[in-house]
Amino acid sequence: MPLQVRLSASLRRLAPGYDALRGLEADWRPGLTVAGLLAQLGIAPQEVKIIMLNGRAAGLGDHLADGDRVGLFPAVGGG
Amino acid sequence: MQAWVMELLGPYLVPHETPGQEGFYSVREAGLRELAMVQDRPLREVMLACLDEGIWPERFRPNRGTLTASDQARLLRSSVAVIGAGGLGGMVILQLARLGVGRLIVCDGDVFEESNLNRQFLATRESLGQGKARAAALAVESVNPVVEVRVHGVWAYEDNLPAILSDAQVVVDCLDTLATRYIVEEACRQAGLPFVHGAVGGLEGMVMTVRNGDPGLAGLYGQEPAPKAEAAESYLGVPTPTPAMIATLQVAEAVKLLLGWPGLGRGQVLHVDLGVPSIDVLQLG
Hints:
The complex is a heterodimer. By secondary structure, chain A is of the alpha+beta class. Chain A has one helix spanning 34-41, and strands at 3-7, 24-26, 50-53, 56-57, 69-73. Chain A has one helix and five strands. Chain B is 38% helix and 19% strand. By secondary structure, chain B is α/β, with parallel strands linked by helices. Chains A and B meet through strand 4 of A and helix 5, strand 8, strand 9, helix 9 and helix 10 of B.
């Protein structure tokens, strides 16, 4: 099963054609980390401030399992 | 009901009967003002005396059912600091005034400019060029004169925050830069005050309640605030509907804190996306 990836706000500009309703699917392989997923998506790690893995906060070094849900968020500070 | 109430307020009392529910009286502002004059007491105290008798000031009557008279009285005796009176803060201030939070501490060193008109409810053609904190006080006065507003027309920083926050029970973060938000959060931590964070970028926003010991902004973004140029709003702007939505959620959290009701839990962040649309809870570590 592919990974289910959701991009928030300004990160969407880094994935042309991103569909906010469906998110995007990414290939999984054994040993893949969040950092590896970002490299696969072409997103620089410093762009990502919050990583959610299946609804809980995670880090760049965390390993992903087949079919995981990953949410990636930039900093948000406007008012 | 005590005899003095009927005697003094009789002509101004409005009975409310709903079949199957307990009846109650509300009182119009004219009656409250007359009572305040006769008894030489502030209008706010007269409102509190009525609420203690279960009589609802008409202006608060639609809060009844969700709030009890004693909840409403508690709000009227409460004090909230709103740091920032722009897109988030203007709406937070207007809602807290209409809800009947008795004292608002408003801090903002900025003045209104044309580019605020898309989303800042206190920005009008008339208020352009005026200080935002002062404009907030004028707007509150026109909505609910029993609300006391303390105006701090200055920028919040480490040195002035302890004095600004000294009488507050809850602090609502309505700023527009992460660096200052971190400073206010730290001042709240030192003062032992709960901090209700709200931030927007594009059609998305975040709300988080930070109590002592919670991960807070560092748990969300790391120890150092991201520079303004990297934050979502520098790409996506701040369009009209988003700050009002996030401000509403901040008001709900602030009121729950004042009333001791359960709200967002430790490490929980509400993430709102008006584009999808969706609201979900992110759980920090």
